[in-house]
Amino acid sequence: MAENTPHLGNPIPHDEEVVVIVGSGAGGGTVAYELTQKGIPCVVLEAGPWLLPEDYENDEWAAFNQMAWLDNRTASGPYRVATDFPNLPAWIVKAVGGTTTHWSGATPRFREYEFKTRSHYGRVEGANLLDWPITLADLAPFYDRAEKAIGSTHRHGRPALPANNNYKVLANGAEKVGYKFYATGPYGTNAEPYDGRPASIQDGFNFQGDKSTAKWSTAVREIPRAIATGKCEVRPSSQAVQVTHDASGRADAVLYLDSEGNLHRQAAKVVCVAGNSIESPRLLLMSASALHPDGLANSSGQVGRNYMRHTTGSVYARFDQPVHMYRGETMAGIIADEARLDTSRGFAGGYYMETLSLGPAFLAAFAEPGSWGPEFTEILDAYQNTAGMWVVGEDMPQETNRVTLSPALQDQWGLPAPDVHFEDHPNDVAMREHGYGRADMLYEAVGANGTHHTPPYPATHNLGTCRMSERPEDGVVDAFGQAHDVPGLYVSDGSVMTTGAAANPTLTIVALAIRQAEHIASQLGKGAS
Amino acid sequence: MVDSTADTVSPAARTNLVRLLRAAYPHPRFPDGPYERTADTIIDQVGESLWHRLALVQGLESLDAAAQHSRGTGFAELDDEQALALLRGIEDAQFFAFVRGVTVVTLYNDHEVWDLLGYEGESYSKGGYLHRGFDDLDWLPNPRVEEYDGPEQIVEVAPDDQLTTTGGTH
Question: Is A7 a member of any domain?
């Protein structure tokens, strides 16, 4: 961490009942910002350290070791991540700002049909589909606010980013195969100065934190502004252990460990759990009590289930001439033509195609894990002449894909480590194969000599493990993210997503968090929640 | 030859290790430097573990035995094709898996390798790539960066997938 310790906000007594927010990423950071703007005091417990822009590293492994969540975790099940990266099911961040520190920036909205997948897709064997209790129309005004907060390009008067080299290949290929709905955004990094932050310098290190702060994150916007209200205290290096409830069953405190391992209790009138879709269900499962023997808010049995990670795959294409894909904004290139429902393609749901680049260090680790020999080195030898894209689409929620507490493995505090069990649904496999095929056509249309299909990485999009439902028996939280079973307990991150849609989830997490904060503020105003 | 009783990595074993890395990760453009640095990192890492150290020393010695058996020469004397074929035969050997695990995160994190592959690394201190070629690709036309604003509209739901009055579509 930098030597100038960041201002952590006005201290709030541990016995003062406030809104306690676990996690400072897209969901938690946004809730803290929205509530403190209204004068509502918040304590933010963040498991990771406070990294400042000057701390971020323009180096893939150094940045990974600096900010990735590397506490004990296991991946299990037949998916390849469990074999190649058995202790790294997800590539997410442990720092103030959460995974907005690492996010690339793509901000498409969900489509209307994606809130109604059970109705549209029908009964898909093995899938636990459910319609959301809200619609696109419910969320639209909050999407507007989220896009303005993030400063999404192509929206609300924000200009487009220029075409970088990787985008030039993607967009020309898209045009050649007849795609229409491509652009350099919408994208959460400034093309021109906006909201007190500068324009992109195209440094190519989105995933490593953005030293320039041109990229939106809660670490550079929501958290500092929440602190500036005087109503927020941020406590970094604080690992939540349990959410407790009073005799009436209402959430009343969060127990957490400080960096020395000392246990503290922060009294709460409302608790917002926003630890991302592995840690949030883990915390609820660790909070089992006599009233909630299977885990807090788990009368449905759905806590930790329906874990989704998006159907993904990458395609790296080799050309005769230089591309230098690593120069510039990593994901400022989005094709939406396949993000639609057309089951004549052989699968339900849709996917986006987005520019993606890794440096040689990460390409070597992730392009074809475990591979060696000439078939491996040819991927790296072509580095300079390589263009890359990510296929990212909706995956099927399955009850057996789930986060559980490991019976054997513990973290550094002696708390049970989470296990992430995952298996592709046949629909996921069909979609991925379709995406690989379309990506090959696209790149071959602009002269690719060959392509490499890279399997899914450790998940960056983790969703669904505390899902939103109309009926308490179908899910964990209601339409505002409040637990069906526990008054005063909210879930504020991507784990509330009933289904995952095709779009990158950050924009929707922010929109849902703004909507939830309005609801919490109105409930507190009425003297209840 | 490698001293079979040692649990330290001898110079001869290091030579075999460098040869192994060149055969398993063949890049004709690379000089020896990156492979030697990677070998030294591997040797440093096994220093922390008696088990890994023993496995590596024994494994590197067994390469010579295997090469003698099949080709009548030491491993370091095999040509690329012969060395690769030998390594294919021991792909599952524990020491070789360990060597690969370290190599993939070390060889390609070597800054000389980055230069050789055409990767420029750290850029923030140089102003990013804004004025250093982020858009210098000139063998394709400059594409549109704005969203499509022509007459077509995306069909979010295909006609056959529209909701029916009975609910599902399947």
Answer: no
